[in-house]
Amino acid sequence: MPSATEPVTPPQLDELYRTCVHCGLCLQACPTYRELGLEMDSPRGRIRQVMLVETGQLDLGPGVVEHLDRCLACRACETACPSGVRYGEIIESARARIEQQYRRPLPARVARRIGYRIIADFKLLAHAATLLRFYQRSGARRLAQSSGILRLFRLQQTESLAPQIEDDFFFRELGNSFPAEGARRARVAFLAGCIASVAFAELNRATIRVLQKNGVEVWVPEAQGCCGALHVHAGLQAEAQQLARQNIHAMLASDVDAIVTNAAGCGTTLKEYGALLAADPAFAARAGEFAARVRDVNEFLAALGARPPARTLAARVTYQDPCHLAHGQRVRSAPRELLRLIAPNFVEMPRADSCCGSAGIYNIAQNELSMQILDTKMNDVAATQAEILATANVGCMLQLRAGIARRGLNIQVRHVMELLDDACRGA
Amino acid sequence: MRLSAIRAKLTAICGSRAVLHSKEDLLLYEYDAGLARARPDFVVFPSTTEQVAAVVALASESGLPVVARGAGTGLSGGAIPRSGGIVLAFARMNRILEVDVANQRAVVQPGVVNLELSEHVRPLGFYFAPDPSSQKACTIGGNVAENSGGPHTLASGVTVNHVTGLEVVLADGRIVELGGKSSEAAGYDLTGFFVGSEGTLGITTKIMVKLTRVPEHVSTLLAIYNDVRDAGNTVVEITSAGITPAALEMMDGWTLRAVEAAAHAGYPQDAAAVLLIELEGLRETVDEQVLAVEAACARQNAREVRIAQNDAERQRLWYGRKNAFAAIGRISPSYYTQDGVIPRTRIPQTLEHIQQVAARYSLTIGNVFHAGDGNLHPLILFDDRSPAETEKSIQAGKEILQYCISVGGSLTGEHGVGIEKRDLMPMLFSDEELQVMRRLREALNPRGTLNPEKLIPGARTCMEIRTPQFPGVVS
To answer: How far is B334 from chain A, CA to nearest CA, in Å?
Structure first.
């Protein structure tokens, strides 16, 4: 468990929110504004609230925290903003302040502390995942679902969003290297991910196979940990900084061409390690170097030039942009290029870059609004008449699957890497 | 009536989830995209015409002001509740009620976002022509109130040319329908009278609009100049030759450099000015016009004329123009956009005058405007943390407008009068003319509860509720 100390930078917000000229062009890009129609739940309104709190015109009370909590941090507003307001930094700083100064109700505090601690420690995570797997498979789940105990604790909605724990965790791959097939074109360090290691181990394996097929040697550094994205989003700066130091130690090696992840949310945070540790003299330079080498796996493969796979898919395929890929990293064309290699029947979805409502743990913390956003998304998904909905982030996959189940649609949700792996293997 | 009693009645009309009254919520409704600030007592989110009517009637009975708000993208303070009262926010009345392709009409609620109507009907081959730069956020109700225009105003006209009918709630809560889906109505043109009335005559609850057919062919040109006067002369030459482009926009070199950072449109960084010229219609006609326009640009010493080769290039050129104001946030904490109108033949000398004003006040002023119809948008940069600088900017803006009027122009092309230009109206209108406006307003808004202290100076509202908490223009 990394030791949490005080965060090393006091957030300087003034210059950040001054770039906002309150033009309102972000409003319709914001999924929560579109659902609720409230200025307080728009990017412009949230920036205003942060500014009013910072300048002492407004208390950091429940009336403000409610709206800042409702932000998905999808950053669609950054794409919409002509002024280049760095909204992500504003909301993260605000959340750090909330974490330090605002007292949440006790159950929320306890649940948060336990949750964030588990994902930060892979040993703890393996135990917790084993327990959850036992719950999901032993009949305890059916008992819980039928007994009404979930309803009693208002968990019936969120329980179904939990990832399905796999048989074979990804932890045994830590420390291994996987050789390139054919001539080696590159060597990369691969981020296993916390939740991905217990619930998307097969996706990680598929990603490694696709990289190998494309002449990439993949190293899975042993001492790596969680990327810290959820900690950053929750305002736990010190914990996030500690995880960043751990990953820089573990993964930044001179013979690595890129640090690759298949999770868009993790990728955005990894790319921001430079800013996260800017005020730490011992790490600032290496954090910047680390961040510069991070690539989303789609971005990496498209730039390398993916080899056309053995076969193509007959199915009609559409793509949901993960927010942290499209808005956080501005990677939009790479996954589409890869999909077009294998899916001649590719169709664009309206508002493909609008958030599905997953947003880390948002679908649990803000379940009702998240489901509202998801149902709106499903209107667009259904309109494409696609049979496969591709995306590039594990959190989005869980949420989209839940949305499809709620609507009773017959659509598979697959990661771009899984589809490439199928095509390479002729499955 | 006490505020608590009014709150109870508002809740009874619209439901508790549709009424905001706490300080932290109201603080978020004291601004729009412009400079004025004032806090309402309540923000109400009606979902039906009947709820709007009941709220307006309640306001009239209790003498409380009512101010409508769409997306809060206005620049003249139209949605700012200058003397408090009730803000009627239309975010939840945002449905497209009917699309009648055969008759080229749509019926929408006021909260429908301008661009979303166009996107909705584009697969059918149509769009909604008024295209303010804020079109991805602003609402059609707001467009009606301000009689908004946009780059394509030159050929297609402003909002009033695209609205055939309105459902309106009058000051006492009665509901009337003005005009209709057909273009021609008997008697007074009340629809035309209401469009642009900035919420001072009634509250629009339903809008019947014309849909315009998507043109067969569009060509977008970027003409680049080393001298801003040559660009101005090109505008005169193109329009005198009898060519009416769909849009004819100008940006000066200073604005270009600021916008390029946001747009990556490939705007030249060393130019003194560019013209963005769009031609549309039948392919053969457009191709002919492109040649004529290119020749006109060359005769006026254009350094280069680029033609967008595909839709993506066209979109990029427009992205820069449409986001020009907001992109200023990258280089200045605040900006003040003016909205003067001049005869297009006066463009070069007006630009020179603006630079003189800038020098006299030691301010930076960029220019981006609808050159074809002589609608200027000087962008005055300042830091709103300094009251002195704010005041200086407002003074400079006023001088520019005075100049516009002196050369035969007007105070506003499309942003509305609102709070911002209310006290400048006597520069444009005589006492008698203003008196006609007052009497018309009093006939429909006798108690002065509908958007008070806007549009017409020296308002004789029957009840001034209280002095505003944030008078005039502060930040």
So the answer is: 6
